[in-house]
Write a structure and sequence with these properties.
single chain, 425 residues, alpha/beta, Arc Repressor Mutant, subunit A, Nucleotidyltransferase, domain 5, five-stranded mixed sheet, 12 helices, 16 strands
Length: 425
């Protein structure tokens, strides 16, 4: 039986809408928030009072009128504390320190050896990147903020590749590292001594797109991440889609070619085996096994070499781009046909490097792979979310988690296991 949504659930979702409205609108009056969210003025007034009492909002300005009380223009108070968002990939850890208005303050990054996969090694890299971001450690890159920032950190959101259970704080399965049921949240909390929230990067990029990207003009979208791994963060009707086990969006492990290339997950013919970096390397080897780009030892260097060669007019790499765009258009066509979504945004370092060549070719070929009814309003573009969208999304999750600890949860994007619903009697 489907759980019934209670009045408490509706109230929590209303809090989420108020917070999201302030991210979109900037400093706003209660009346402007009510119009934007379509909540009643009384509901907005009550929720604003709660946020003010916890120091999450502040009165940014008073606007005088000819008669009556002045308007209070409200804003998220950036001085309430700090949040860290962390993007963990197979080749790097990138950490960004934000204020709670999710304005970036400083950044730290640590390179990971893509051939090393021990838990201690990865956790140490995460800790060093966070320390670099807050100016307390010896990470490889940091814009210093001073040790005083540490005491102001309200939480850290950490994305982990593969299947993650946020409710349990567990990395369920990371095929690239051969991890199974790793209690990653516990390990990180011990290393960082700060409240930690873990999730999957696909959920993070979807949330960042919902709050700061095309989610401001569209309620339904897929955010496709291309890098070492491949996947899609999905939002439908303004809600982040997680699935029963937080595994929704594993588009990279859907079938592109029956009995095709072997994938890291153990299956054959997955999308990732053609569009992940290793898949693109395989495609290039099929075209020209002696091409110089294949001599690059690191994945990101390989993609940069491909981009440089494309810009120089290398005909072999032009064929690689054509073939990769063909695979991408076919795989995106299945995604659009399944979900009937009007927006696809591409993110990830492969997308950033190769978008100039991939996006036009994909747009031209998509009509061959999408049912006509889903074509008229379909838009495919590179994400315009600023900075690192994974780190930004994880910071937003950590902020929601902090609000939940204050008794101000915002479960519109929370994991199913964290929601409180009452079954029908």
């Amino acid at each position: 039986m489907v759980p019934r949504q209670t009045s408490r659930d509706l109230r929590n979702e209303s809090r989420f809408e108020v917070l999201r409205a302030l991210f979109e609108l900037g400093p706003s009056t209660r009346q402007e928030i009510a119009r934007h969210t379509r909540l009643s003025t009384a509901t907005v007034a009550t929720l604003v009072t709660e946020f003010l009492s916890e120091g999450v909002l502040r009165i940014a300005a008073l606007e005088r009128r000819t008669v009556g009380r002045p308007y209070e223009r409200l804003a998220i108070d950036p001085e309430r504390g700090r949040i860290v968002g962390v993007d963990v990939a197979e080749t790097y850890v990138a950490a960004t320190l934000f204020d709670i208005a999710l304005t970036p303050i400083s950044h730290g990054e640590v390179t990971l050896d893509e051939h090393e996969n021990s838990q201690a090694y990865v956790v140490d890299g995460i800790v060093r990147a966070v320390e670099a971001a807050v100016g307390t450690g010896a990470g490889e890159a940091a814009v210093g903020t001073g040790a005083g920032e540490v005491d102001r950190i309200l939480g850290v959101g950490v994305s982990m590749p593969g299947q993650v259970s946020p409710g349990a704080g567990v990395s369920v399965f990371a095929p690239n590292w051969d991890w199974h049921e790793v209690k990653i949240e516990e390990l990180l909390a011990q290393g960082l001594r700060i409240p930690v929230y873990v999730d999957n990067p696909l959920k993070a990029v979807a949330l960042s797109e919902m709050w700061f990207g095309v989610g401001r003009i569209a309620d339904s979208m897929a955010v496709v991440n291309l890098g070492t791994g491949v996947g899609a963060g999905i939002a439908i009707d303004g809600a982040l889609i997680r699935g029963a086990n937080n595994n929704a969006g594993e588009w990279g492990h859907t079938l592109l070619q029956l009995d095709g290339r072997e994938c890291r997950c153990g299956r054959r013919g997955c999308v990732e085996a053609y569009l992940g970096v290793q898949g693109i390397e395989t495609s290039l080897a099929e075209i020209d096994k002696d091409h110089p780009a294949l001599q690059q030892p690191l994945q990101r260097d390989f993609i940069e070499a491909v981009a440089t060669g494309l810009a120089a007019g290398d005909p072999v790499l032009a064929e690689l781009a054509r073939r990769t765009a063909h695979y991408l258009a076919a795989a995106l066509g299945d995604l659009v046909t399944l979900l009937d979504i009007p927006y696809i945004t591409l993110t990830g370092w492969t997308s950033t490097a190769l978008a100039e060549w991939l996006v036009p070719a994909v747009r031209a070929e998509l009509p061959d792979h999408v049912l006509p009814g889903s074509l008229p309003d379909l838009t495919v573009e590179v994400s315009r979310v600023p900075g690192n969208p994974v780190a930004l999304g994880m910071a937003a999750f950590a902020l929601e988690h902090f609000l939940g600890q204050l008794g101000l949860p915002s479960p519109a994007s929370a994991p199913i296991a964290r929601r409180r619903t009452r079954p029908q009697s």
